[in-house]
């Protein structure tokens, strides 16, 4: 745990938003698209972007110091990393836009603490009323899972077999597990399933079955009882209270054959590095009204839902993957 011991330490934390704001501004302006392999003076780039020359030059100089733009006597260019990863609609550009959106909600953290309510509307309402933003969000989650997520296809509990992907979004893990040899059943809300259908269209027919259902109203997650060998619950439990999460896990339990497995992929509030877990907990309270449960609570939730032999897979922190077996 870091202990603040001087005003300078605190000030360094307080200005931590500034690099993120500079990167977000560059993304919004299309700056990484405007820069190319040929050095360009700031005035030329400003004309291309219809931007103020002096202010754009200041942004470029900041990005040089942040290691995302290079400067020579002839002007500015992207670094190799920026050229490869930060152009419009790249994976990391999706993540940049996601974080810019949620940063506005974080500015209202004090309201959340006082009221006990999140800033954002419930997910189902946002899917209907803010489809552009929720689509961007789902693609950003896909990018994050592919870039930073654990290689779940390495787990023998998930491959091979018939596996339920609970609220699997676009199907990032369904794709990885199907390509590794499992037959997947992805269940999510109808609006999400339509996006997943396009995302997974290149996979062999039958490798991923798509089912549109509300996981919280359909028994056994909308599929036949005891019809899968295993289930994956990835980054869902943190959106809900302990009680609601146990209800979901019991529904998942009913879908798994006796002796089958559940794999929970999430972040726990008491797992670092540093303040990662506790800040993620705050993020859930701001965005969804959920909770980043600690490791002991996640374990107890599984035990209370009819699972046993809970253990943590050996992935590096902050990744928290719990594996449990359904009681026979």
Radius of gyration: 22 Å
Roughly what percent helix? 40-55%
Uncertain segments = none
CATH topology of the largest domain: Rossmann fold
Our estimate of the beta-strand percent is 15-25%
Termini distance?
Answer: 42 Å
- Class by helix and strand content? alpha/beta
Count the DSSP helices.
15
Q: Please identify which CATH superfamily of the largest domain we are dealing with.
A: Vaccinia Virus protein VP39
Characterize the biggest β-sheet: 7 strands, mixed
Spell out the helices and strands N to C: HHHHHEEHHHHHEHEHEEHEHHEE
Average predicted local confidence, pLDDT: 97
Instruction: Estimate the global geometry from the Cα principal axes.
Output: globular
In total, the number of strands is: 9
CATH architecture of the largest domain: 3-Layer(aba) Sandwich
Highest CATH level, the class of the largest domain: Alpha Beta
Structural domains: how many = 2
Strand order of the largest sheet: 5-4-3-6-7-9-8
Domain O-methyltransferase dimerisation: 12-88
Keywords: Methyltransferase, S-adenosyl-L-methionine, Transferase
Domain O-methyltransferase C-terminal: 162-307
GO molecular function: O-methyltransferase activity; protein dimerization activity
